[in-house]
Amino acid sequence: PSFSRPSVSDDNPYSESLFRTLKYCSAYPGKLFENIEQARQWVHRFVQWYNQEHRHSAIRYVTPGQRHRGEDTALLKKRQKLYETAKVRNPHRWSGKTRNWNPVNEVWLNPPREIRAREQKVCK
């Protein structure tokens, strides 16, 4: 059963976001776990994947591990250079600006409108 309040989408946004990610993970089990240890092992593997392999759109497609270790800045600069080079080589494939590869300083689950609008803008 759910303990969230009815019709309140952000009652507990952190756990709701995690549960949605769990449910839609391709490795999500289609049947119940046989015991608590099996469940713990699956969750442990999921956390490893989520933090070290899964690229998060909210932090410009780097992993939380890369961001935590400070590897995101160099990686995002490299991506920006790659996109700029691709745009120069094939300008007909670009109708506007390239993707925004600036590092993200703050992450929101439910950002205010003005922050959402600002984040949707892309850099040159």
TrEMBL record:
InterPro entries to which the protein is assigned, alphabetical: Integrase_cat-core, RNaseH-like_sf, RNaseH_sf
GO terms of molecular function: nucleic acid binding
Gene3D superfamilies: Ribonuclease H-like superfamily/Ribonuclease H
Domain (Integrase catalytic): residue spans on this chain: 2-64
GO BP: DNA integration
Name of this chain's protein: Integrase core domain-containing protein
